[in-house]
Amino acid sequence: MPYKDKEKRRQSDKRYYQRHHEKLLRKQRAYNRNYYQQNRERILEHRKLRMRTDKQYHEQRKERTRISYRKAAEAWGTQQGHRAARENIEIATRTELFVAQFVLPKYGFTNIIVCRTFARQFPFDILAKKDGRRVAVEVTIGMQKSIKPQKKLLLDFMDADLYICHVKLDFSRYYLLPVNMEEKTSSTCQGIFMKTIGAKNVVFKKEVEG
Hints:
By secondary structure, this protein is of the alpha+beta class.
């Protein structure tokens, strides 16, 4: 019998694996997903405990995060240091006009108002409408943007949705992302940007339409 010979058995197992490779992968992925869903709380608690108690693991994780951010920031073109106030205003104005004139109309936004034209310190950069609903848009040239929790009061009063538009300084890429302030008070395009860094399309369209 061939299985008495270790080498023949190894070759037979290898052929079986090659024939059923994709099927086995799908089965393993499904098992991993189900296991995570059934044990999510225990896994997350164990992860938190490990981070609290294992200093080396915690430092390694922090260093990986720093390396990942530096790599993304370099590709995004984040500028170090502080610009002059006048230059910041000019950049902000150009970016907001770019979003108002080219980005928002492309995805069905109407009644677009650049708030800087009538109030320099208005809580939101752009007001508009989409699908009959009021919309507030914050524009940033960074990969990350935090929103003051107090702005949720104004959004609720206006009955408006919130979007964040992350724009590269050279306007070669932008990501228009919805933000639900019931769940979070910040937005980041770092993960999306790094996944699509080689793509020709400059908008993460799924997020805008979703």
